[in-house]
Amino acid sequence: MAKITFITSDNEEIVAEATSGTVMELAKENNVNGIDGDCGGVCSCATCHVHVAEEDFEKVGAPGEIEADMLELEDNYNERSRLCCQIDMSDAIDGVTLYVAN
Ligand code: FES
Fold first, then answer.
1. pLDDT number for residue 61
2. Is 76 strand, coil or helix?
3. What proportion of the chain, given as a percentage, has pLDDT over 70?
4. CA-based diameter of the chain, in Å?
5. Is residue 85 in contact with ligand 1, taking CB distance under 6 Å?
6. What is the mean pLDDT of residues 75-88?
7. Sequence-separated contacts (24+) of 77-80 with Cβ below 8 Å
8. To the nearest 5 percent, what fractions of the chain are helix, strand and coil?
9. Ligand 1 atom showing the smallest separation from residue 85 Cα
């Protein structure tokens, strides 16, 4: 079981937890504003863009090659950007905070 805190662009804080699936699916299930997941999680829409909190980035890890290419096209891209459909829920990411980029 991992617990994730989402901070939306309106500064709303949503805490949600799950044992499986992806972070994008968790965000959708919990109606996190700004995470649309339009492509269903196949890394081709970037509507699940988040910025990982600085202190948590090591836990979450860097994007893969295809994900990084998608992210570089995003206006809000920064060095802590991830597409959250590419982050699997697991104990390894318990407690991380993600800022919705869209
Ligand atoms: S849901 Fe489309 S890139 Fe993540």
1. 97
2. coil
3. 100
4. 33
5. yes
6. 97
7. 78/51, 80/51, 80/52, 80/53, 80/54
8. 25, 25, 50
9. 4
Average pLDDT over residues 22-29: 98
Nearest atom (ligand 1) to Cα of 84: 4
- The answer to whether residue 102 scores a pLDDT higher than 90 is no
Rounded to the nearest angstrom, the distance between the alpha carbon of 36 and the centre of ligand 1 is 8
Residue nearest to atom 3 of ligand 1 (CA): 43
The set of residues, in sequence order, having a beta carbon less than 8 Å from that of 28 and lying 6+ positions away, is 35, 37
**Centroid of ligand 1 to alpha carbon of 1 (angstroms):** 23
48 CB within 6 A, ligand 1: yes
**Model confidence band, residue 57 (pLDDT cutoffs 50, 70, 90):** very high
Q: Assess whether the C-beta atom of 83 lies below 6 angstroms from ligand 1.
A: yes
